[in-house]
Amino acid sequence: MKEYYTLLRLNRKEYKIMAVKKEKGIIEVELSSQKKKVRCPICNTFTKSIHGKLKPIKSVYLDSCGQMVNLIIHKRRFHCYKCNKIFTEEMNLTGKNGSISNAIKIQIRKDLMDYNLTIDYIAKKNHVSKYIVRKELEEATNTIPEHLKNLPRVISFDEFKADTKEGKYAFIINDPIHKKVLDILPKRKKEYLIQYFTYTENRHSVEFVISDMYEPYLVVTTIMFPKAKYVVDRFHYIRYITEALDKIRIRLQKEYGEKSHEYKLLKNKKNVSLLRRYGNKINWWVEVERYKNGHMVKMLPSDILREIKGISDELKRGYELKELFLDIINHATYEEAEREILGWIELCKASGIDEFIEASGTIERWLEYIVNSFIDERYSNGFTEGVNNKIKVIKRNGFGYKNFEFFRKRILYIFNKKLGGGIKNVQNNKQIKK
């Protein structure tokens, strides 16, 4: 019997294993308490008087060596002579629902933190129903407030595709400095967000709000956070410029036609990556193979890029404008940013390239908030984009979530990494971690 105490992580001083048997591939372990006296929950007095025994309780336990384990728990009833009450001893193996052990509940909550695991998989893994898993999530997240009362000095806004009964897009609030997900809301509409933030008590303490170039978010920030600076995330305004260059490429493809050499050169995926990315991992000094004039030849990436730019003066000029803009983003200081970007905008207007005139116009309209992104490199939506990617995995693995509130709780539980209330057996939790 000694090995079973180790395998099941049970304390020999607290529990006595009475019998072990195997039926239909399931190990059943009968056990009882080793305690000679227990404390009365009414008057807090110790008593040794056994009044009787309860019918054994079958409880699902953690798997051991690949085998499903059930505990058959024998509990005793005690009589307290001081207050004349009869009570059942507490063994700290199960909660009110004796069919599920506390160890399984803790394991379910740990599994719920893994964004790759679905509710159905967690239920099968722990030999419980999906209802039990959902119930554990509800208990673990019962302290999540409906509204945020306090916010950090720097927050970020974004949306992600939720496709729940509440709507197509959900709204996410993050703390990008401390890498925390603060809340998930069912809508991103301006009126709804204004109403939500009326519950926030320290709105005047928020100093920076980071988001994209979505005007309703700017309006919400102006109204609800009057002392905060609105910061446009770098990724979003850089994308306008790279897309402007890509639009030139696509336009030239159509002009030259599918059978032309220029079309094939522009269409090549490796060449497209050269046009669309800055600071990528391409080794410019290592030759690559490409198909040219009917056979494979080796060329340096710099030669390929030179050949692409030779197709059109507009493409070459667009590439130079893109590189110049990204040089400004990567090297300019907060004091220099506005002046250098304004100079770049003038170059775009003088270029006569429609795609860059349009893109620079957008940059000019949002210039004040773009310049704010130079105050601190940490003020970006990089953390938020990473969170959104994980949320996509959660949604895809679960084949979608129609219940928004459940979806919200699962996301907040995963990113907050906290075991919630409802499990008394803290000691057992520590044993499991070991």
Q: What does this protein structure show overall?
A:
With 434 residues, the protein is an alpha+beta fold. Among the domains are: 2-99, no CATH class; 235-374. The protein contains 17 helices and 16 strands. α2 crosses α4 and α4 crosses α16 (404-416). The chain is elongated and about 95 Å long. The model is unreliable at 424-434 (pLDDT under 50).
Give a short synopsis of this structure.
By secondary structure, the protein is an alpha+beta fold. Helix content is 44%, strand content 21%.
What's the N-to-C terminus distance? 22 Å
Mean pLDDT: 89
- Count up the helices: 17
What structural class do you assign from the helix and strand content? alpha+beta
What overall form do the CA principal axes indicate?
elongated
Gyration radius, to the nearest Å? 31 Å
Strand content: 15-25%
Placed side by side, the strands forming the largest sheet appear as 12-11-10-13-14
Question: Which structural traits does this protein have?
Answer:
5-stranded mixed sheet, 17 helices, disordered C terminus
